[in-house]
Amino acid sequence: MNTYDKEFIARMKDFAVLGLWPSQIAERLGLQGTERARFLEDITDYEHPLCREYHNSRGNYEDDLDAAPQTR
After folding, report:
1. For residues 11 and 53, is the Cβ–Cβ distance under 8 A?
2. What is the pLDDT of residue 62?
3. Spatial distance between the Cα atoms of 18 and 27, rounded to a whole number of angstroms
4. pTM of the shown model
5. Which helix (H) or strand (E) holds 65?
6. Is the pLDDT of residue 67 over 70?
7. DSSP per-residue letters across 4-22
8. Residues 6-32: pLDDT tens digits?
9. Count of other CB atoms within 10 angstroms of residue 29
10. pLDDT of residue 64
11. CB 63 within 8 Å of CB 55
């Protein structure tokens, strides 16, 4: 299983809270080639801790959207 350091995970979570998708996060983290492919595989593998961190952070984004006042 691939591991990521705390700083990397914190940056990924910051992007997830903004509502970015895994491919957008990979782009902003400057990941390319094998590193990008490994990241995208891990972030979409429900058994991987990175995936759980992503979904928890992404959930915060969705909660914020639900709590925001709706204007029309």
Report:
1. no
2. 64
3. 14
4. 0.81
5. helix 49-67
6. no
7. --HHHHHHHHHHHHTT--H
8. 999 999 999 999 989 999 999 999 999
9. 15
10. 60
11. no
Residue 65 contacts residue 58 (beta carbons within 8 Å):
no
- Token pair 């390319």 in the structure block, residue: 32
Compute the average pLDDT of residues 33-40. 97
3-state secondary structure 30-64: CCCHHHHHHHHHHHCCCCCHHHHHHHHHHHHHHHH
Q: Quick one: what percent of the chain has pLDDT higher than 70? A: 82
How many C-beta atoms lie closer than 10 Å to residue 39's C-beta?
21
**Single-letter residue type at 25:** I
Question: Which structure tokens are listed for 49?
Answer: 């801790």
